[in-house]
């Protein structure tokens, strides 16, 4: 029986879940896009028309769906939240686990945002922060986001916020929940080997998700630059050894010590809490705590980061526009005063 677990760059907290009512509204919206009449029609009739729709029309929707909360599978409305992870203990049969994030998991958000046609990204993000947070300048200052930043620069910074809150924060939330079961060894890992195959981002500078998986399985070892081979091979050996024996070259994570194993191109380094306390991710975690306690990370993740990404879609852009108009008004009043 398996008594070990590994999570790479993700958790249930980064899933988008929807309530039954949200699913109903989304289903009707997608049906209308297919040209299906929905007014005065039963859900069953609409569903049958969707089923009969041409497959190419279904694909053209580019809609991926989402798990349904308040259901038999996901009974809790807050299941996909960092607060839920923070107070949830692992399964009793688990002996140990590795919880890992990459230093630029936000590359996924970067890819999505680059395909969207909107400008003034730093100003939009700043307006959202001012609308949603008590200390908006605190978050902007941590990541040095300036309203005059060019869009590519701003997007790189914003996706670092997404990385640190939505992935690193998710790992810490999971570790906090697991710490309530002292018999389980929990290992915190940070993957920081830059992706040598990146196209949109500068090669070798950003440790992205999916690259962590590719480097683990090694299908392109013959194409690896010489300078990252040592780090990749040590990363792979550590994970494979753990899978085989359960041994891992790191102290178990505890709330007071917060040991973390970092994989870089130069090799492995174990960090203690005092060595990471002033990093951007840890500063963002403290700001989240100040904003809303146990709900703080979810506030930053849902109301700031995901809201920013969502409103890049023309369907939701009006929501950001309303915030921008209010922000611009407040700025003009402040300048006038």
What's this entry about, in short?
By secondary structure, the chain is an alpha/beta fold. It has 14 helices and five strands. Strands 1-2-3-4-5 form a five-stranded mixed sheet.
Overview of the molecule:
The protein is α/β, with parallel strands linked by helices. The protein is 50% helix and 9% strand. The protein contains 14 helices and 5 strands. The protein has a 5-stranded mixed beta sheet with strand order 1-2-3-4-5.
Describe the structure using short key phrases.
about 325 residues, alpha/beta, 5-stranded mixed sheet, about 10% strand
Write the layout of secondary structure elements.
Blueprint: E1 4-8, H1 20-33, H2 43-52, H3 55-60, H4 82-86, E2 96-102, H5 107-114, H6 121-132, H7 136-142, H8 151-178, E3 185-191, H9 211-217, H10 226-245, E4 260-264, E5 267-271, H11 273-276, H12 280-292, H13 296-310, H14 317-336
Parallel strand pairs: 1-2, 2-3, 3-4
Antiparallel strand pairs: 4-5
Helix pairs in contact: 5-8, 6-7, 6-13, 6-14, 8-12, 8-13, 12-13
Which stretches of 5+ consecutive residues score pLDDT under 50? none
What is the tally of beta strands?
5
Strand content: 5-15%
Average pLDDT, rounded to a whole number, is: 93
Instruction: Determine the number of helices (DSSP H or I, runs of at least 4 residues).
Output: 14
Give the helix level as a range of percent.
40-55%
Q: In sequence order, what are the helices and strands, one letter per element?
A: EHHHHEHHHHEHHEEHHHH
Overall 3D geometry?
globular
Main sheet specs? 5 strands, mixed
Rg is: 22 Å
For the biggest β-sheet, the strand order reads 1-2-3-4-5
The rounded distance between the terminal residues' Cα atoms is 68 Å
Structural class estimated from helices and strands: alpha/beta
């Amino acid at each position: 029986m398996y008594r070990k677990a590994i999570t790479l760059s993700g958790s249930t907290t980064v899933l988008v879940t929807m309530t039954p009512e949200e699913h109903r509204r989304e289903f009707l919206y997608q049906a209308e896009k297919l040209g299906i009449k929905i007014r005065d029609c039963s859900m069953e009739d609409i569903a049958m028309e969707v089923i009969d729709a041409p497959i190419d029309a279904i694909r053209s929707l580019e809609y991926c769906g989402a798990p349904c909360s308040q259901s038999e599978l996901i009974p809790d409305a807050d299941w996909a939240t960092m607060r839920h992870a923070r107070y949830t203990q692992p399964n009793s049969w688990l002996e140990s686990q590795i919880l890992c994030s990459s230093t630029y998991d936000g590359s996924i958000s970067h890819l999505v945002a680059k395909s969207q046609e909107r400008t003034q990204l730093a100003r939009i993000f700043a307006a959202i922060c001012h609308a949603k947070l008590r200390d908006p300048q605190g978050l902007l200052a941590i990541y040095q986001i300036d309203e005059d930043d060019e869009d590519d620069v701003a997007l790189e910074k914003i996706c670092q916020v997404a990385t640190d809150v939505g992935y690193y924060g998710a790992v810490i939330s999971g570790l906090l929940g697991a710490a309530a079961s002292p018999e389980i060894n929990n290992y915190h890992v940070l993957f920081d080997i830059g992706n040598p195959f990146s196209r949109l981002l500068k090669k070798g500078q950003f440790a992205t998700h999916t690259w962590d998986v590719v480097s683990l399985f090694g299908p392109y070892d013959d194409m690896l630059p010489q300078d990252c081979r040592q780090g990749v091979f040590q990363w792979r050996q550590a994970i494979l050894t753990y899978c085989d024996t359960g041994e891992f070259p790191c102290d178990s994570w505890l709330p007071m010590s917060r040991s973390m194993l970092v994989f870089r191109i130069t090799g492995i380094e174990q960090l203690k809490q005092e060595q990471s306390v002033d990093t951007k991710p840890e500063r963002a975690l403290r700001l989240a705590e100040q904003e809303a306690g146990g709900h703080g990370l979810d506030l930053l993740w849902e109301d700031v980061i995901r809201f920013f990404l969502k409103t890049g879609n023309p369907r939701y852009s009006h929501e950001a526009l309303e915030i921008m108009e209010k922000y611009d008004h407040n700025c003009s009043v402040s300048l006038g005063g």
